[in-house]
Amino acid sequence: MMVKPSCASLSIQGIDPARLPRHVAIIMDGNGRWAQGRGFERIYGHRRGKDSVKAIVEMSREIGIQYLSLYAFSEENWGRPAAEVKALMRLLKRYLTTELDRMMKNDVRLLVIGNVKKLPADVQKALKVSVETTRRNKGLTVTLALSYSAREEIAAAVRTIAKQVERGELVPEEISEATIAQSLGTAGIPDPDLLIRTSGEVRLSNFLLWQVAYTEIYITETLWPDFREAEFLEALRQFQARERRFGRVVDGRADQARLRAAN
Ligand code: IPE
Ligand code: IPE
Ligand code: MG
User: Fold this and answer.
1) Which of 77, 112, 198 for mutating ligand 2's site (highest number of atoms within 8 Å of CB)?
2) pLDDT tens digits, residue range 87-115?
3) Which of 11, 59, 74, 87 fits a 20 to 30 Å CA distance from 156?
4) How many angstroms separate the alpha carbon of residue 127 from the centre of ligand 3?
5) Can you give the residue ranges of every domain in the chain?
6) CA of 95 to the centre of ligand 3 (A)
7) Considering all CA atoms of the chain, what is the largest pairwise distance in Å, rounded to the nearest integer?
8) Domain 24-240 maps to which CATH number in 3.40.50.720, 1.25.40.10, 3.30.450.20, 3.40.1180.10?
9) Which residues of 231-260 are buried (b: 16+ CB within 10 A; e: fewer)?
10) Ligand 2 neighbourhood includes 205 CB (under 6 angstroms)
């Protein structure tokens, strides 16, 4: 059964509800190994991974996280065997259609980043319906990264900015970090405070390269289909035990609070 932690029970779990990460990003890795380790086809792991997605979305909503970004399919993942790609697309479409009601009930807004035009037409359609239908929801923003490459996202931002310069709307001297951030797929979404990667791989695999400049990183050996509520709480506990310095010198809790407010 789902645990539904209220603020009080979060405190019991050793988590301060006032200091939750505003934005959690997750590289959901290890589905294939989870299945293969049990003698199943890789795709069975993706199916079980979908249940982890549901659990973590629901839990994020319950505990009051505002933004959750999920790396579901990378640009590089197109290079996998056609049958696996096809099965992943089918799962994605099913997830979108079966979860829409729950997203509405739970006040979840869905966004997508990545080269969506490369996805099959029926998946694009399902995405469009979910994004449109949930666009006024305010409880939790879930951003799915699909056909996503951070380097391509940055290259696209450079193209956008170059066109603004070409049209005379912007002079190169005015290009700031904010100009770039506003031209990325994640425009309007705060940078992640916490990045989780499952399956023990210690790399970013082309995910949110610009946005994670000062993100705290939590890496666990747990494979994504096994990543559920208990470990999510552990990641939050470890996040809260860290001291974020943002390159500065920090002296005590008051400074921590000021730094958090400034970033
Ligand atoms: C993550 O699991 C899901 C996707 C990348 C789509 P993997 O499929 O990468 O599983 P492993 O890493 O091979 O075990
Ligand atoms: C990263 O996992 C992409 C997603 C989780 C969607 P991969 O399994 O594709 O990454 P690598 O190949 O281990 O770097
Ligand atoms: Mg992998």
Assistant:
1) 77
2) 999 999 999 999 999 999 999 999 999 99
3) 87
4) 23
5) 24-240
6) 20
7) 60
8) 3.40.1180.10
9) bbbbbbeebeeeeeeeeeeeeeeeeeeeee
10) yes
